[in-house]
Amino acid sequence: MLLPTVAAGMMMMGGQAAGVAQPRLETAAIAVLAMQQAEQPSVPGTPPSAVPAATATTPPVQDDNPADDIVVTGDKGAPRGDPLEQLNAKSFEAVQSVDKAVVEPVAKAYNKGLPRPVRKGLRNFFSNLQEPVVFAAYLLQFKPGKAFETVGRFGVNSTLGFLGLFDVAKRKPFYLPHRNNGLANTLGYYGIGPGPYMYLPIIGPTTLRDIVGDTVDKMIVPLAVGKPFNSPSYVIPATIINQLGERAAFDETIQAIRKEDDPYTVYKNLYLKQRKAEIEALHGRTTGDTIIPIYGEDIRTPGKKGAPPLTLPDPYASDLDNDTAPAPAPAPEPAPETAPSPQ
């Protein structure tokens, strides 16, 4: 009984010793391996195996939903040449409202009640009274040829045309057409810009340069001639008849303008195009734009048989910011004629 007991005790002691020695041997083996790695020379450019590889950064996911984008917008402001656009537009709307209610019915009755020759004759009469202003403007522009043509036109229409009721001078054999000119055109001819655009009650579309020039033009005949042109008994009825005739002639054009999406801008651009074309003509140039006159003798008197309907051009087709335009390109030279081949 003693021997088995001793043997069992020795076996138990041996198992405990083995259980204690095993972790010590593993710890010693790890220490030896670390010393061997420290003694090995490192290879340049080779990263140590203990350093983990860098991971690529994942780009942020973009949201393709435009509804979540923040858009910053701002007021673009008034266009060049029209710093008072909002005020002008309101003035235009107010004037058009009054025109539709009061002036337009009278203008339509004027067109229907008076024959076209009478309406045209009255317009010719008032236009002829402005020929001295055109003459003075050409002198200021140092264009004596055009100035004396204007004198000839005024003389022919005042005599053969019965005080200007008939425009005889523009026909054969004289060929002296009416030309719009005045102090405002003279200022533009010498390079003075139009200034801000304005739409004023009673006056209508104008610019700072034009309102100054037109005011002086209207004073020339009353100051130079005197009575009856400076008498209220003449000035008031003459102004009413003249303006009524202009409005009656303009009726077709204003009706077409009101049908546009932006009648204020269309009206403004047509006016500025006509003004620009007149000043360019003084330099012997053309703008290339289709001009629809909205003032002056160039407005056609309604009622002419066979007249084509009025069609407005694209009012946004050209730049209206400047009063000057580059000279048109010269016309190409004609091709040389070839001699006919002998038969």
Describe it.
The protein has helices at 2-39, 85-113, 116-128, 131-140, 144-159, 183-189, 208-225, 232-249, 251-258, 263-282; strands at residues 197-200, 204-207. It contains ten helices and two strands, in the order ααααααββαααα. The chain has a two-stranded antiparallel ribbon with strand order 1-2. The protein has a domain at 85-282. It is mainly alpha-helical. A hairpin with a 3-residue loop joins strand 1 and strand 2. It starts with a helix and ends in a 61-residue tail after the last helix. Helices cover 52% and strands 2% of the residues. Helix 4 (131-140) runs antiparallel to helix 5 and helix 6 (183-189) crosses helix 7.
Question: Could you provide a short overview of the structure?
Answer:
By secondary structure, the protein is an all-alpha fold. It has helices at 2-39, 85-113, 116-128, 131-140, 144-159, 183-189, 208-225, 232-249, 251-258, 263-282; strands spanning 197-200, 204-207. It has a two-stranded antiparallel sheet with strand order 1-2.
